[in-house]
Amino acid sequence: MEYQGVDLKDVVKIYPSILVRYGDDLTTISFEWYEENRDSVEVEGYVLIFVKKDKPRQELYFKSYQELQQALQEIINLF
User: Fold this and answer.
1) Cα–Cα distance measured from residue 56 to residue 77, given in angstroms and rounded to the nearest whole number
2) What does DSSP say about strands 2-3 and 11-22: parallel, antiparallel, or unpaired?
3) Which of 3, 24, 46, 76 maximizes the CB count within 10 A of its CB?
């Protein structure tokens, strides 16, 4: 089973996160951290982080929160 190039059969966890700019740095943070620190960062996009069993993690990037939600729904529907 695959979603946009991610082999889902090896995935053990999926983390939705936010891609933010903090000064000159880009990093992914949890939604919870963002809620606590939203005034100090600038949202650049959204990310699904796929943690795989015995393999490097993969990331899919989205421009909007709605696109991220749609991707999550599509993944759920695959199962």
Assistant:
1) 24
2) unpaired
3) 46
Contact predicate 51/13, CB 8 Å = yes
Q: Write the single-letter amino acid at 51.
A: V
Q: Give 5-44 pLDDT, tens digit per residue.
A: 898 988 999 999 999 998 899 999 999 999 998 999 999 9
| CA–CA distances in Å: residue 74 to residues 30, 65, 67 | 21, 14, 11
> Residue by residue, what is the 3-state secondary structure of 10-40?
HEEEEEEEEEEEECCEEEEECHHHHHHHHHH
Angle among Cα 49, 41, 73 to the nearest 5 degrees reads: 30
Which among 18, 17, 20, 7 is positioned nearest to 56, based on CA atoms? 7
Sheet holding 42-52, edge to edge: 25-29, 11-22, 42-52, 55-62
pTM (predicted TM-score):
0.88
